[in-house]
User: Fold UDP-N-acetylglucosamine 1-carboxyvinyltransferase from Limosilactobacillus oris DSM 4864.
Amino acid sequence: MEKIIIKGGRPLRGQVTVEGSKNAVLPLQAAAILAVQGTVTLNNVPPVTDVQLMNRLLRFLNLKTAYGEKQRQLVINGSVPLSSEAPFEYVNQMRASLLVMGPLLARTGQARIALPGGCSIGARPIDLHLAGLRKLGATIKQDAGFIDARCDHLVGSRITLDFPSVGATENLMMAATMAEGITTIENAACEPEIVELANLLNKMGGRVHGAGSKVIRIQGVYYLHGAEYTVAPDRIEAGTWMLAAAVTNGDVIVRNAAAAYNTSLIAKLEEMGVTVIKQEDGIRVLGTSVLIPASVKAMPYPGFPTDLQPQMTVLQLLANGTSTMEEHVFEQRFNHLEELRRMNADFQIAGSVAILDGPTRFSGTEVAATDLRAGAALVLAGLAATGITQVCNPQCLDRGYYDFYQKLHQLGAQIDRFDVKEKFKIKPEQPRQENKGSEPE
Ligand code: EPU
Assistant:
């Protein structure tokens, strides 16, 4: 079993560099399915496991992928006949696998995608993806754990989303690029990752307008071709480092962080007494020993990002008084708080609101990461805690952060990651010789 071990109490100091955005690159990888000619070359692609999982799925669909970790460059070639089935073992490991549905349908006229299973941050239904594809003319059936979508060809339509789902907006944008006529997506997600996808689709010959606003208009084209695109820096990774600096009362320059994409976080940090300085190459964050409580609402962009909600609650718990966190995107994204309770946090949860009573003197203990952002929050709490914190299941962090603990180590944290069995030379259990023939306990 692997663990991250932290001896807390040291302010972080120095510089850290943000990788390319995980949540931007996953739909860009899926968009490569649309290129019937040429290759899609993506630069600044982070070496995180979700990107690898998407590549694995693309290869299963018959696309060729080549990734150079050092150059951070991914080349995808889909100019071959494609398979159109995504099995459970791929979709279940990563829900973003669903993003292949729209482009597969547009390119091959069919997509058979396993229904994803449960999720640690909420129910995460896919009704909006399916309703939108139906509006574009697809026939969709569900059987034996699969979604089976088919069409002769897709036809542009007016789609109004009940909620500005990021994934549904992306899936529908990709499907609509090759639909006949014009598609309008209303109440679309406005996240910067949507703009990234539109930029690539337009470089591939698509005609997508209005991305980043509530209404996206797509004029269908006959075919799309390869293109080269450089992925923007990861605003959530940047925000995580900014919060790490604040929770340790440190002084950190977050290189490549774009202030324009983190305005809601910056506003809250400043409200809490943290100094944020925008620089040419990033953002400098200087902590304070007296944090002011704040009320935060995690909302669709440009609201406070749900992907920074768990990390933000750590800072709120350190503040001098009562703060609140409202979660308006996912229904179960407070799992990390129960782990933080084991580190001395005092809070109550009432529906979608967490009431956080500070100031907390976090004390180190063994805690378990339930997902990527929960894992980041636990590490941040460990950095602020007295004593030793052990974070189990650190593989969660590899899904979206590259070299998380090494980057913290470079900022001065006392942190290590190891396999417990290796480190303490725990021998594998020997089969028991006595009681032969008895039932297992
Ligand atoms: N929803 C529906 N029906 C749908 C689709 C979504 O009800 O058909 C609901 C979900 O249940 C959820 C809400 O809408 O309550 C938002 O879901 P959304 O579709 O916007 O999220 P997503 O596309 O599944 C992406 C990111 C998440 C991020 C959310 C919200 C990727 C690969 N994932 O997920 O990132 O939290 O948008 O911003 O882009 C993470 O990086 O840790 C992460 C979870």
About this structure: DSSP finds 15 helices and 24 strands in the chain.
